[in-house]
Write a structure and sequence with these properties.
Layout (H helix, E strand, L loop, with lengths): L7 E2 L12 H10 L7 E2 L6 H10 L17 H5 L3 E10 L25 H7 L7 E7 L12 H8 L6 H16 L3 E5 L1 H12 L10 E5 L8 H4 L4 H8 L2
Parallel strand pairs: 3-4, 3-5, 5-6
Antiparallel strand pairs: 1-6, 2-4
């Protein structure tokens, strides 16, 4: 399966959590301990600042990538999250992503080697800011995606008895049930492969009409000006012009 695969639609029955307010969504995420794996696509860097980068090469420091302090308050955060979209990486890399800025540190790595800036350009000129962000496989701290054995993990999800892969699947399903997205963006070919295999084996229940989009991993593969055009079409399909 190529990394530039076409968008496809899958229809499944809804299940799980009833419709909730944004604040209830956040509370449900916390109650299920999903906040340790996840974050929201919120940054103190707006499209105007990104345009400066693209037009003037005005650099953005990795220290600016931390989760905004003003949204550490759940009531304030509830006014900004976007439950229409979910963004997924493959797994949490073997690195300490925690910062001094509180919760929701995943995908907000401020270290010098951080590649999380690439996410912002996928959000550029879209209405996907505030989307839920997580990883397909939980509690799997592996830096190299080639070392994540997707086929074996999916087999483990179907094995007798409980195991880490089944726990990961339960957490993934719980996230989807809570958010009920219109679009799921999968970063990298392994993440796309994992979803394909889980769907094929009827391991996942997805909201009716959800659109699944495969993207290059945000850390590699495209220049920022190329990233800045990739999800605009999908944003317009959901929100209009």
């Amino acid at each position: 399966m190529g990394i530039f695969r076409d968008i496809y639609n899958k229809t499944f029955s809804k299940n799980g959590v009833d419709n909730m307010s944004n604040l209830d969504v956040i509370k449900e995420i916390r109650a299920n301990h999903l906040d340790q794996y996840s974050s929201w696509a919120l940054y103190d860097i707006d499209d105007a600042r990104l345009k400066e980068y693209l037009d003037q090469d005005k650099k953005i420091a990795t220290t600016e990538l931390s989760f905004p302090a003003e949204y550490q308050n759940d009531e304030a955060l509830a006014n900004k999250i976007n439950t229409d979209a979910m963004f997924y990486g493959l797994n949490v890399a073997a690195r300490n992503i925690k910062t001094d800025y509180g919760d929701w540190a995943n995908f907000h790595d401020t270290r010098d080697k951080s590649k999380d800036l690439g996410i912002l350009f996928d959000l550029y000129n879209t209405k996907f800011r505030g989307a839920y962000m997580s990883d397909v496989f939980k509690d799997l701290p592996e830096t190299e995606s080639k070392n994540v054995k997707v086929s074996q993990l999916v087999k483990d999800m179907q094995a007798d008895g409980d195991n880490d892969a089944k726990k990961s699947l339960r957490l993934l399903q719980k996230e989807i049930d809570i958010i009920k997205p219109k679009i799921i963006v999968l970063y990298g070919a392994p993440s796309q492969d994992a979803f394909d295999k889980m769907i094929k084996e009827n391991l996942l229940n997805l909201p009716e009409g959800v659109k699944i989009v495969g993207r290059h991993h945000y850390s590699m593969g495209e220049k920022y000006d190329e990233k800045a055009t990739k999800l605009v079409k999908e944003s317009k399909e959901i929100y209009g012009e």
